[in-house]
Write a structure and sequence with these properties.
The protein is built from 10 helices and 9 strands. The chain is α/β, with parallel strands linked by helices. Strand 6 and strand 7 form a beta hairpin. The strands form 2 sheets. Strands 1-9-8-2-5-3-4 form a 7-stranded mixed sheet, sandwiched between helices. Strands 6-7 form a two-stranded antiparallel sheet. The relative contact order is 0.16.
Length: 308
């Protein structure tokens, strides 16, 4: 029954997505006004996160950033819906990519690559990173499977919708791959150890346990997900930072920066520390371009937890 209703919701989303992007932005502006002025959706979470992350920011600046964030958040929603019915070429016109050789060279050398990213840009449009079919070579990451690592939603219904949306993206961009639940990623990687592929991991979600590495992130002690570090060190897979900048409304740029290769002995938790450094730099450079409404710091750091 859940599959049936998920199919109905998916079909309705597809119909709505057929509308021009300008119409989607019209609805986005209306929703942003409602969430900001009437509902005040997670207002205290957003303002508290911003104030603690930028202690020198004045009240007026916090209020202005919060207002801009509501518009950005609603744009993400409607851009993601628009993406559903529009072609790969239409998405590529809005998502430019550079530094693809960073990933291609590592994949040619090691076979597998981990791409680590934060909730920046519009991560639901990350499929725009796939280069056109005519430009692909056997060594191009776009020619090989892509696995999106995610944490299963508590709602089975939501989980089904997410998988339908992601698999649609793979088909649209002629990309092999699938979504892999985070608890299954190690097993998946061991099972497919000889396959050339990339794993995309959004690594700044709220951690689920109290035994994760602790870092100083945006002026606060923060638990970070250990997955990218664990996978990179345990299976000797190179790690790359996927940067997604918002250039303007509806236009994004994806770039890649190598974090480390297996042959480089950088010490324990190096991937995590470097990811945090790069992500923090990007957030400070464009402070609206991050998921401020997420309850990132809802768990207190346990006494005795060692900071990296």
């Amino acid at each position: 029954m859940k599959n049936f209703f998920a199919g109905v919701v998916y079909s309705l989303l597809y119909l709505v997505s057929l509308l021009p992007l300008g119409v989607h932005y019209f609805f986005s502006d209306i929703l942003a006004f409602i969430l900001k002025k009437i509902v005040r959706y997670r207002y205290s979470v957003i303002t508290t996160n911003i104030a603690r992350s930028f202690p020198d920011m004045k009240y007026g600046e916090i209020k202005k950033l919060t207002s801009r964030y509501y518009s950005y958040m609603c744009d993400l929603l409607f851009e993601s819906i628009w993406d559903l019915a529009h072609s790969a070429d239409a998405v590529r016109k809005r998502v430019s990519v550079s530094d693809v050789e960073v990933v291609d060279e590592l994949q040619k050398k090691y076979g597998r690559v981990i791409l680590v990213m934060g909730h920046c840009g519009n991560w639901e449009m990350v499929s725009g990173m796939m280069i056109p079919d005519a430009e692909r070579t056997p060594d191009s990451y776009s020619s090989n499977p892509t696995y999106m690592v995610y944490k299963a939603a508590e709602s089975k219904f939501s989980d089904i919708i997410f998988k339908k949306l992601r698999m649609h993206e793979y088909k649209k961009f002629h990309t092999r791959g699938e979504v892999v639940e985070s608890k299954q990623v190690l097993r998946h990687a061991l099972k497919n150890k000889d396959e050339k592929c990339i794993y995309i991991m959004i690594a700044d979600q709220n951690p689920i346990g109290h035994h994760d590495p602790v870092v100083n992130f945006l002026n606060q002690k923060t638990y970070m997900l250990p997955g990218p570090d664990f996978l990179a060190s345990r299976l000797e897979i190179p790690a790359v930072y996927l940067r997604m900048d918002r250039l303007s409304r509806g236009r994004y740029h994806i770039g890649y920066q190598k974090i480390c290769e297996p042959s480089e002995n950088r010490g324990e938790h190096y991937v995590t520390k470097e990811f945090v450094r790069l992500l923090e730099e990007d957030i400070k450079r464009d402070n609206v371009n991050w998921l401020w409404s997420h309850k990132r710091w809802k768990r207190n750091i346990e006494p005795g937890s060692e900071q990296l």
